[in-house]
Amino acid sequence: MAVVIGRLLAVAFLICFGTGLYSHLLQNPLPWVTFPTRPVWIYQVTQGVHITAGIACFPLLFAKLFAVFPELFQHPPVRSLAHFLERVSIAVFVAASLMLITTGLLNTYQLYAIFGFSFRLTHYALSWIVVGSLAVHIGVKLPVIARFWRRGDAEATLETQPDPDAGSEVPDELQRRTGWGPDHGVTGRLFAWIDRSPAVREPRAADQTRRGFLTTVAVATGLVVTTTAGQSFRVFEPFNVFAPRRRGVGPQMLPVNRTAEAAGVLESATAPDWTLTVVNGPVREVYTRSRLRAMPQHDAVLPIACVEGWSQDAAWRGPRLRDLLDSVGAAGDAHLRITSLQTRGGFAVTQMQPEFARDPLTLVALELFGEELDIDHGFPARLIAPGRPGVLQTKWLSTIEVIA
Ligand SMILES: Nc1nc2c(c(=O)[nH]1)N[C@H]1C(S)=C(S)[C@@H](COP(=O)(O)O)O[C@H]1N2
Ligand SMILES: [Mo]
């Protein structure tokens, strides 16, 4: 049982780890990594899968803890140095995993305030601790896992050989494994009682118990996934009961992550003398709204794909970023620093790699769904690029600088 659920949990963890690393790298790029910009929804899918697999970890992790619960109270608690290290790695693994999925879940509900620490750094550091202790744990448990894989042969052997214990009292398997027995006070008697459950005594009843348990876990996992995945995947939308965001709800039918008021830009973004400055060393071009409007306008249907798990496609219109970069003679491999008018909170300054800056679908968006941008969506101008997390789609643009 522990192996079966452990395997599902390991798959979910590895999916989360891979998609999480991808998201982390997009936000903390390495100079030699070039990201794909097609399909335009690539980040929508990796992040949707990340959040959905992360939510599935809750029932799976609890089921796993339940299946191995008596083992947590082994007696004696430590038998050898190797045993001690194994138990420490499990303690670290359990604590870090619970913390990892809990911080992730709270993040999808935007409950950053209750952490008092940087969500992203903590979530990232914990993921390495979990993967490291998972590797140790799997290494230590390899013999048990191997025995499970070979169980077909073992069962065949059992069937053909007479049971040496037949007729005699069935050995207290749990007591033998854990060392806890009726002599060990209340806990010992409790475990001795668990030991007497049909799951241990009668193989047929044990099969039924196992099947019932696995069905419960499957139903629980299916339920939490279908009632939250609607924020990322349209097919699940009608069942979106618990996920915090809903498609189509917000100004211009698009949810808002940080409002203009929260960002402190109500005045600066509506000022008649607003300009966007594009800088390449000593060269500088100043764009007013009418100058931006006079440039060739392009349309792009690109999603906002928030790291918090919600995503939605939207139709954007505006000049291409690369046309602005050409006007200051920026090199084709130029990296950019993008600054918002924002005065409060994170994401006021972001960076952009050349593959996104040069992409024909990367726009300085002035319109959303055929209307002038709502102030909460970044009026007068915002960036929109394919394949990037929402946090990097900077609203209320102020300056765009070539940095390398
Ligand atoms: N200047 C600025 N731009 C920003 C943000 C911000 O806080 N400040 N939030 C980002 C985040 S986290 C997301 S998901 C998208 C959401 O865009 P929307 O609010 O127009 O839907 O905007 C991004 N652009
Ligand atoms: Mo976001």
TrEMBL record:
Residue intervals of the Oxidoreductase molybdopterin-binding domain: 270-403
Domain of life: Bacteria
Spans traversing the lipid bilayer: 47-69, 90-115, 121-140
Region entry Disordered, spans: 158-183
Keyword Disulfide bond: no
Keyword terms of this UniProt record: Membrane, Transmembrane, Transmembrane helix
Protein name per Swiss-Prot or TrEMBL: Molybdopterin-dependent oxidoreductase
Organism of origin: Microbacterium lacus
